[in-house]
């Protein structure tokens, strides 16, 4: 991994891994943060490994943004331990900032600077030399499809384009750890797909990527791991593969003979309903769904479609927040 200040020889690559870091990129252990007497964080613990995208998922008020501010060295915890790229942000905030790319949900821009000047400013703020910055800026603008705006003032950019510019700002110094709070906010569908590819590429090159978002279906496509949080605490940590095996989702079925399908489901005592000509089953795990489909085929039902509804991450999130209803 290149330290800040070194230029990359790669064309469109966003970072280069020159060594494998030890330990997790983010290590949070029993972290507490109070606002007055209210515990915004009440003992949160988890890790975000290098080489993976970790999704931070929870309802509003769960403590996600408070935690990210602590990780970015902008807020101090009252208790517990935090390490980011091996540095304690309360002891070595400069070390954390040199190793971290931080993209907050709400960010300010210098509207009168051009896009190129804006990125050069932040490159120099990270103490990159002018030659490194000059080479880095076109590379980043190509990455997020803003090259044609390089010499335009920032104020002409749309909300989504400014969001992409904020991502380049977070990447300008080739960080080992990325902290992203709602990075897809304001992005159109194509830009969201491109963001997903960028984050997957960064993880593949060795970065630890921690991303918080409410767009659960897209987090599911990006993330290797999921950290579920609620009430300022960690509810669970899962590999996406394990989460899919545990998740319960409704399924939709279509058959050549809907009446035969209905009879087979009733015979087996399977709860179902009819919606727009398709039959929907109550929530099932993947194992239960596979068994149900096998039973229907064995019963001679001509099944032509059998698909889950929603996403695995969404179903787990909804189950976690069921008490709010």
Task: Report on this structure.
- With 325 residues, the protein is an alpha/beta fold.
- The protein has 2 domains: 26-243, Rossmann fold (3-Layer(aba) Sandwich); 247-324, Alpha-Beta Plaits, CATH 3.30.70.
- It contains 11 helices and 13 strands.
- It has helices at 64-71, 93-99, 115-125, 130-143, 159-171, 189-204, 216-222, 240-246, 258-267, 286-298, 312-320, and strands at residues 26-35, 38-48, 53-57, 79-84, 100-103, 177-181, 208-212, 225-230, 233-239, 249-255, 272-275, 278-284, 303-308.
- The strands form 3 sheets. A 6-stranded mixed beta sheet has the order 5-6-7-3-8-9, sandwiched between helices. It has a 4-stranded antiparallel beta sheet with strand order 11-12-10-13.
- Helix 6 links the parallel strand 6 (177-181) and strand 7.
- Helix 6 packs parallel to helix 7 (216-222).
- The longest helix is centred in the middle third of the chain and has 16 residues, at 189-204.
- The two termini are 46 Å apart.
- 38% of the residues are buried.
- Mean pLDDT is 86; it is low at 1-20.
């Amino acid at each position: 991994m290149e330290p800040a200040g070194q230029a990359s020889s790669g064309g469109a690559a966003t970072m280069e891994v020159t060594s494998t870091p030890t330990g997790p990129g983010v290590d949070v252990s029993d972290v507490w943060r109070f606002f007055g007497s209210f515990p915004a964080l009440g003992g949160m613990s988890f890790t975000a490994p290098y080489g993976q995208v970790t999704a931070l998922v929870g309802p509003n008020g769960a403590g996600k943004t408070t935690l990210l501010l602590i990780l970015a060295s902008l807020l101090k915890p009252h208790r517990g331990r935090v390490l980011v790229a091996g540095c304690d942000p309360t002891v070595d905030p400069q070390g954390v900032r040199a190793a971290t790319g931080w993209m907050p949900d709400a960010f300010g821009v210098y509207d009168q600077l051009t896009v190129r000047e804006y990125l050069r400013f932040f490159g120099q703020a990270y103490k990159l030399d002018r030659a490194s910055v000059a080479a880095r800026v076109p590379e980043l603008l190509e990455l997020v499809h803003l090259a044609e705006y390089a010499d335009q003032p920032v104020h002409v950019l749309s909300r989504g384009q400014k969001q992409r510019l904020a991502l380049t700002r977070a990447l300008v110094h080739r960080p080992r750890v990325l902290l992203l709070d709602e990075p897809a906010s304001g992005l159109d569908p194509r830009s969201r797909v491109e963001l997903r590819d960028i984050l997957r590429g960064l993880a593949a090159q060795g970065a630890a990527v921690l991303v918080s978002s409410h767009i659960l279906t897209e987090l599911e496509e990006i993330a290797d791991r999921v950290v579920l949080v609620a009430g300022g605490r960690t509810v669970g940590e899962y590999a996406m593969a394990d989460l899919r095996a545990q998740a319960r989702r409704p399924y939709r079925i279509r058959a050549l003979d809907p009446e035969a399908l209905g009879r087979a489901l009733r015979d087996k005592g399977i709860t179902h309903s009819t919606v727009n000509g398709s039959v929907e089953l109550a929530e099932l795990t993947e194992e239960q769904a596979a068994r149900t489909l096998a039973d229907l085929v064995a019963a001679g039902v001509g099944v032509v479609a059998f698909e889950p509804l929603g996403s695995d991450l969404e179903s787990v999130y909804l189950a976690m927040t069921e008490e709010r209803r």
